Amino acid sequence: MSTSLTNKLVTITGAASGIGLSTARKLAGRGAVLSLADYNASNLARAQEELASISSSPKSIYSTTLDIRSTSAVDAWIAETKEHFGRTIDGCANIAGFHPLWTPKNIEEISDDEFDEVIQINTTGLFKCLRAQLAPGILSSPASVVNVGSVSGLIGFAGDSAYVASKHAAHGLTKCVSKEAGKRGVRVNAVAPGQTNTPMVQAMAVEKGVLPTPPVSLQREGQPEEIAEAIIWLLGNESGYVTGSVYRVDGGMLD
Ligand SMILES: NC(=O)c1ccc[n+]([C@@H]2O[C@H](COP(=O)([O-])OP(=O)(O)OC[C@H]3O[C@@H](n4cnc5c(N)ncnc54)[C@H](O)[C@@H]3O)[C@@H](O)[C@H]2O)c1
């Protein structure tokens, strides 16, 4: 299938699992050229192998094991992506994220380390990716950046302060960077998923027992492919007049 993303160079963090892997599969199937990153080396190697078999050219898939908390690793990955493919980057899907599997904790029960770990991945890690991607000479014009936030970036949930704070910040970064980058032809948006059936949520179910059906209009959780479709629409020219937006893909949770 030829789309506006065919032959476009797109980076994806969190590409080894869940929403990131689903996005990578769809982009590879539509002929995009991909630079994948994740800190889970074995899952990333599996993803690379699978995606090379979907892609029209195995050379179109480049992968790097890295932790988005590392400034030097993120900067090197973005610079190497440009160098490896010999061209500027057309799209960035910043999807890597972390939810602690702890039982809900009120603020007075959360340790410094527990709070910091979530913020360092979901907020500071995202900041480091955006900073590297928006550096002069890295992105094409036009280009599109899509960050994955959460419905937890739109409302509060008792017992989940760190994650909720980290995702509100992710949406804030999205809005600020969109205002800085628009004049360069770079759009920056976020997708805010509701509860989605990925290994992150499956791990919570293992820890806590069966998760209740989320209280949403569609009365079911989302599938990673459904979140990936929104990310891909925002990456492509089809959404060319959209920037600074946070798109809920949550089955109708808030209204
Ligand atoms: N699943 C949900 O219900 C849900 C809901 C709202 C938002 N989200 C967000 O969607 C995104 C994807 O989550 P998912 O559900 O697919 O989870 P997932 O755990 O299946 O995938 C997340 C991927 O990110 C990688 N990752 C985590 N921290 C990293 C780091 N520091 N450096 C590099 N890679 C790292 C993990 O190794 C994993 O492969 C996350 O940002 C998450 O917060 C998920």
Characterization of the model:
By secondary structure, the protein is α/β, with parallel strands linked by helices. It has one domain (about 10-250): 3-Layer(aba) Sandwich (Rossmann fold), CATH 3.40.50. It is built from seven helices and seven strands; from the N terminus they run βαβαβαβαβαβααβ. It has helices spanning about 20-30, 40-55, 70-85, 110-135, 160-180, 200-210, 225-235; strands spanning about 10-15, 35-40, 60-65, 90-95, 140-150, 185-195, 245-250. Helix 1 runs parallel beside helix 2, helix 3 runs parallel beside helix 4 and helix 4 (about 110-135) runs parallel beside helix 5. The model has no long low-confidence stretch (mean pLDDT about 95). The protein binds nicotinamide-adenine-dinucleotide (NAD). Nicotinamide-adenine-dinucleotide (NAD) binds near residues 19, 39, 95, 195 and 200. Nicotinamide-adenine-dinucleotide binds near residues 98, 150 and 201.
Q: Which stretches are low in confidence, meaning pLDDT under 50 for 5 or more residues running?
A: none
CATH superfamily grouping: NAD(P)-binding Rossmann-like Domain
Any idea what the CATH architecture is?
3-Layer(aba) Sandwich
Total count of domains: 1
What ions, cofactors and ligands are bound? Answer: nicotinamide-adenine-dinucleotide
- Nearest-integer average pLDDT: 95
Going across the biggest sheet, name each strand in turn: 3-2-1-4-5-6-7
The residue fraction in helices comes out at 40-55%
InterPro entries: NAD(P)-bd_dom_sf, Sc_DH/Rdtase_CS, SDR_fam
Pfam families: adh_short_C2
GO molecular function: oxidoreductase activity
Protein name: Oxidoreductase
